[in-house]
Amino acid sequence: MTANTAPRYDVIAIGNAVVDVIASCTEELIDELQLNRGGMTLIDEARADELYEAMPPARELSGGSAANTLAGLATLGLQCAFIGQVADDQLGKVFRHDMRATGIDFDTPARDGEPATGRVLIFVTPDGERTMNTFLGAGQFLPAAALDEELIASGAILYLEGYLWDPEEPRRAMRRAIEVAREAGRKIAFTASESFVIARHGDDFRAMIEEGIIDILFVNESELATLTGEDDFEAGLAAVAGKVPVLVATRSEKGAVAVAHGERAEVAAEPVAKVIDTTGAGDQFAAGFLSGYAKGEPLAQCLKRGAICASEVIAHYGPRPEADMQALMAERL
């Protein structure tokens, strides 16, 4: 597919294919299990089994940061496809079914043998804060050979998940995907995912920013500080804003800021009666923003869409929308 060919998909994402296991818990259990409260920790399969045994009754829902964003985009009526690695096991079948049932094309072949499909064990404390423990499983073995390059070239936006930059094999696959998308004249969107990923791979990310590879960058406040070395939020924005065409920085209850081509817009957080579970808040903010961006809407309205999506997902358990998002947008925009 050559540059400037009309895209078939609005967004194609590459990310971790994982199943979220979510349980409410006490603050005491977080301490007892020596978890990184409010953060995300990579764990091996033995630790995953240990934590699963210690969890209170849990819900199992297909997740993964980029996959969650696509789920939000699909409910908003956008055409999406996902690239990610599952194993040929029961959780892999569950994940594939959930993606397709949401209207997302997902055809990456399953991987035979060990390890199992990835899972994230999420402990939610009474304040709604989520503590994530991630066993990447098969997801960290996504090879470049599994990429459908024609598919990648057919998406207006290629959305990449920072979490998947950590393992070597999918990192190579994503670098190749970037080359394919850029050759086809597509936009590259990148979500930093977590400060620990930036701490490990910040040189890569900063190099991509300097080289002009990233068109749309999503960060939260702490990720921006890690990326730039600036504790002051405004200083962090200034350090990056001129280097990416579109910078989106979320600040939890303080709303979000976007700077695009010299224009700045801000949005307050949408009111929420009760925060139940913050899992997926950033993923759904990205979905809302991209749903407006893909349609060429004004920057402020893209941010408003993001805030609406984030407010919906934190009002219930799970990282994906449960409401009729198109109706919710019509009501609140």
Could you give a short description of this structure?
The protein has helices at 27-32, 45-54, 65-75, 90-101, 149-153, 168-183, 195-210, 221-228, 233-241, 281-293, 299-313, 325-332; strands spanning 9-14, 18-24, 40-42, 59-63, 80-83, 105-106, 117-124, 130-137, 155-161, 187-191, 216-220, 246-250, 256-260, 263-267. It has 333 residues and is α/β, with parallel strands linked by helices. The chain has one domain (9-332): Ribokinase (UDP-N-acetylmuramoyl-L-alanine:D-glutamate ligase, 3-Layer(aba) Sandwich).
Q: Structurally, how many domains make up the residues?
A: 1
Widest sheet: strand ordering: 6-5-1-9-10-11-12-13-14
Helix amount, in percent? 25-40%
Name the poorly predicted regions: none
Dominant shape: globular
Mean pLDDT across all amino acids: 95
| Structural class by secondary-structure content | alpha/beta
Strand content: 15-25%
Provide an overview of this structure.
Strand 12 and strand 13 form a beta hairpin. The protein is globular. Helix 3 (65-75) crosses helix 10 and helix 10 packs antiparallel against helix 11. The protein starts with 8 loop residues before the first strand and ends with a helix. The protein has 12 helices and 14 strands. It is 39% helix and 23% strand. The mean pLDDT is 95. It is an alpha/beta fold. The strands form 2 sheets. A 9-stranded mixed sheet has the order 6-5-1-9-10-11-12-13-14, sandwiched between helices. It has a 5-stranded mixed sheet with strand order 3-8-7-2-4. The protein has helices at residues 27-32, 45-54, 65-75, 90-101, 149-153, 168-183, 195-210, 221-228, 233-241, 281-293, 299-313, 325-332, and strands spanning 9-14, 18-24, 40-42, 59-63, 80-83, 105-106, 117-124, 130-137, 155-161, 187-191, 216-220, 246-250, 256-260, 263-267. It has a single domain (9-332), classed as Ribokinase (UDP-N-acetylmuramoyl-L-alanine:D-glutamate ligase, 3-Layer(aba) Sandwich).
